[in-house]
Amino acid sequence: MIRELFKRLHLRDRQLARVVNIGTPYLWLGLFFLAPFAIVLHISLAETALAQPPYTSLWEWVDDGVLQVRLNLQNFVTVFSDELYLAAFLNSLWVALVCTILCLLIGYPMAYAIATAPERRRVILLMLIILPFWTSFLIRVYAWIGILKPNGLLNNLLLSLGLIDQPLTILHTQTAIYIGVVYSYLPFMILPLFANLTRLDFSLLEAAADLGCRPFKAFLKVTLPLSLPGIVAGSMLVFIPVVGEFVIPDLLGGPDSLMIGKMLWTEFFSNKDWPLAAALAICLLGILVVPFVMMQRLEQRIGGDEL
Amino acid sequence: MNRSRWKLYLFLAVGLAFLYIPVLLLVIYSFNESRLVTVWSGFSTKWYGELLHNRQLLDAAWLSVRIAATNATFAVILGTLAANALVRHGNFRGRTGFQLLLTAPLVMPEVITGLSLLLLFVTMEHTVGWPAGRGFTTITIAHITFSTAFVAVVVRSRLSQMDRSLEEAAMDLGARPLRVYMSITLPLIAPALLSGWLLAFTLSLDDLVISSFVAGPGSTTLPMVVYSSVRMGVSPQINALASIVVLIVSVAVLVAGLLSMRQQPTAKAN
Amino acid sequence: MTNPAERRKLEPWQDPKAAPYVRIDHVTKKFGDVYAVDDVSLDIFQGEFFSLLGSSGCGKSTLLRMLAGLERPSAGRIYIDGADVTDIPAYSRPVNMMFQSYALFPHMTVEQNVEFGLKQDRMPRKERAERVGEMLALLQISELRRRKPDQLSGGQRQRVALARTLAKHPKLLLLDEPLGALDKRLRESAQFELVNLQERIGITFVTVTHDQEEAMTMSTRIAVMNAGQILQVDTPTAIYEYPEYRFVADFIGLVNLFDGRVMETQDDQVLIESSLGRRLHMRDLHPHAIGTPVTVAIRPEKMQICSTYQENGINQVKGVVEDIAYLGDVSIYRVRVSPEMLVEMTLTNVHPRTEQALTWGQEVAMEWSPTSGVVLTE
């Protein structure tokens, strides 16, 4: 029947396919992913109230048919003036930056080793990288609590080896966050790098050697610049989500390691201050626009193969 | 194998050890007799037994599985449509925006997605009266929204590697486009659909942050139970649960991997 | 040409006193258990345009890569200009290679590609710019200098690759299937260009090819390889006219092979009883003992239509035309002379095709002279 209807509308099969293929996901993501941001912005301009939902309306009809709109910028003022939030933003960016660099330094050689391995071994190695990515994130972060805590496995091991005389305090510090983030996000760095490096034409390296380039220099001059798209893609896949990370700072971090994702969570769940949480979300989004646009432009250029 | 390759492999081995040792320790200590998770006091499976009697946890697990399965099914449909659009419809108007909507959920911090979806649901309930309350439906919708992007990536790469002449041949033999898609294209990208489904399933099963935002009272998912327990500290029951999850996931990934490996030669021959 | 001194200069391999420029000395390369190159020895002289010819997997590329230093021999030594270079890595060898895929760096412009090797030698900037300009002019690609490889056509890429390898003024230029990536028309003109270029700059070229026509057109000498070994090294003419092995005769051009046994020999003349049941009379420069099984190889164009055919006539066969391949300038006739054997004969199409002498199903007798073929044992 629908077929008939479209026929009547002079839509041919291909056009029908076009409408369905493009329209459905567009509609869904537009409604459930894009539209909510407008609402977040809207609510970030409201005030908290003891109501259900716990915020005031932005507009109301005053008696004589006048629409009164009240935009409350206080939440943003709070975010920008309170040093706690500023520190949290800066620390989030710092953690994300450090972890991205660490992931790159660890992930690049691993991706290179896999990409240059013989075909059969490559498939197995790749699966070994993907496997932890599929196991529960929460559980993998949880695993580190048992390892890092004062009477945990790492301290027990080091004590029994006689390398230290008293337990190291790692859990609930910034170091624990670094470990947890690198551990959880390493596959996100390796996979795009691998995808890029397997496409590298190794005769280019032979050509460089033939033209007088030593192996390390050939790596710097040929491999590295050609793998730049993979590096950028991997870095963005790590950097952007880590800036807003909640679980890792919450479980592994301590009181001194403020991160914005955790603060947003606290404002929302503990303080029930929805407008302030929304304002934090808007600021976080604002910060992430730049790296996100970078990634998007890259993906346009390379057709999304790295992701 | 020369010297530098050897070093590279050593580095890779150390890296893989870093990825695997924590999970392995988790599994080992799930068989620990003692409640003190980090002190080994003997082999025992009692924590697995206790797990089976934890009513709250089992309920949460069942809810999570139902959500994950529903989510995965819808996400595969939407993700495949999106992949079709990107691979087959070339440079349609609004492609950039479309692509943006498909990439953003991959990296968007979960707190943002969670908060914004909750605010949407609250507003919708207020204005149109749906969804009434929060629970299974809202969590599933939220999960579909981010899972779709992941499925689209998986299906898209398979679809763009596919040999178009197979479809053209079918069309040349008189099949209409929809028929071609159903009888030629879908079977050929089936491995990608399967791994997309599995990926969406595990992503949903794993999600804590977004679920926490959009869940209502009475709809507690498995990660939420695990999280509240973990916040109290390490517990051997959670170790046991983690081990079961690791086992299931490993088997699923291995099966999917073997399937796609067996599929690979034919795909190449095509 | 008749002057011996002159001849030695043009054909140094004829001169027993000439020192080879490249000496490959009992070189073997094993990959696992497979011998890619099996105990090969070869001398190449300065200024030569030398071709390694063989089908894929015969070891020719491996041999070339060992000259470049990209593979290390499992055994044997390689000398270039008198120096043992076996253990010198690719990046320190005075040798450059043009890759089959050209291996142009996609993230660099044409100019940067050509400059790359010079930078590795730390050549001063000014000199470098000069050399790059020279090379681009030599290959007539100056106007492409700012382009990236993906903005070039196949022929242009080949020129850039050549410019890049020549820029360092290598002692030896290695070319791996230099024309393989070009289409047929372009390939023919590129063959002549490559030879002219080589003559102008005087650098020794060693090329690898599977295309026998390409090897014949360009080379001073050809080494025919099979299964990791060199079968014959000779000038194109000698390879074609005087092959030493059945494989060589068969690999290059068309050939008719008649099996037989030596009956009589006298000086360099030999009488052979062929499996066709006819006697063949040939000249044989390396006479074989009576009774030796031999193969007589005759090129199709050496076959002539016979006007005085006799039953049992020497160097004569008769059959029925089964196929005709019309190639324009010549036609190849496949004539069935026995239930098991087809003989190929090419005739120049002197007259328009409509007036062709022979047609399908026609009976034809053919003959050849004793000096127009060779007698082979292997």
Summarize the structure.
The complex is a heterotrimer of chains A (about 300), B (about 270) and C (about 375). Chain A is mainly α and about 300 residues long.
Structural description of this entry:
The complex is a heterotrimer of chains A (307), B (270) and C (378). Chain A has 307 residues and is mainly α. Chain A is built from 14 helices and two strands. Chain A has a single domain, classed as MetI-like fold (Orthogonal Bundle). Chain A has helices spanning 2-8, 13-44, 74-81, 83-115, 119-134, 137-148, 153-160, 174-198, 202-210, 215-226, 228-243, 247-251, 260-270, 274-302; strands spanning 59-62, 66-69. In chain A, α4 runs parallel beside α8 (174-198). Chain B has helices at residues 3-29, 46-52, 55-88, 95-107, 110-127, 136-161, 164-172, 177-206, 209-214, 222-231, 236-269. In chain B, α8 packs antiparallel against α11 (236-269). The model of chain B is unreliable at 265-270 (pLDDT under 50). Chain C is 24% helix and 34% strand. Chain C contains nine helices and 20 strands. Chain C has helices at 4-10, 60-68, 110-120, 125-138, 154-166, 184-201, 212-218, 236-241, 246-251, and strands at residues 22-31, 34-44, 49-53, 75-80, 83-84, 95-98, 172-176, 204-209, 221-226, 229-234, 256-266, 269-274, 279-283, 293-298, 304-305, 316-326, 330-338, 341-348, 363-367, 373-376. In chain C, a hairpin with a 3-residue loop joins β16 and β17. Chain C is globular, with a radius of gyration of 25 Å. The chains are: A mainly alpha (307), B mainly alpha (270), C alpha+beta (378). At the A-B interface, α2, α4, α5, α6 and α8 of A face α1, α3, α4, α5 and α6 of B.
Write the layout of secondary structure elements.
The complex is a heterotrimer of chains A (307), B (270) and C (378).
Chain A: H1 2-8, H2 13-44, E1 59-62, E2 66-69, H3 74-81, H4 83-115, H5 119-134, H6 137-148, H7 153-160, H8 174-198, H9 202-210, H10 215-226, H11 228-243, H12 247-251, H13 260-270, H14 274-302
Antiparallel strand pairs in A: 1-2
Chain B: H1 3-29, H2 46-52, H3 55-88, H4 95-107, H5 110-127, H6 136-161, H7 164-172, H8 177-206, H9 209-214, H10 222-231, H11 236-269
Chain C: H1 4-10, E1 22-31, E2 34-44, E3 49-53, H2 60-68, E4 75-80, E5 83-84, E6 95-98, H3 110-120, H4 125-138, H5 154-166, E7 172-176, H6 184-201, E8 204-209, H7 212-218, E9 221-226, E10 229-234, H8 236-241, H9 246-251, E11 256-266, E12 269-274, E13 279-283, E14 293-298, E15 304-305, E16 316-326, E17 330-338, E18 341-348, E19 363-367, E20 373-376
Parallel strand pairs in C: 3-8, 3-9, 6-7, 7-8
Antiparallel strand pairs in C: 1-2, 1-4, 4-5, 9-10, 11-12, 11-14, 12-13, 14-20, 15-19, 16-17, 16-19, 17-18
Helix pairs in contact in C: 3-4, 3-5, 4-5
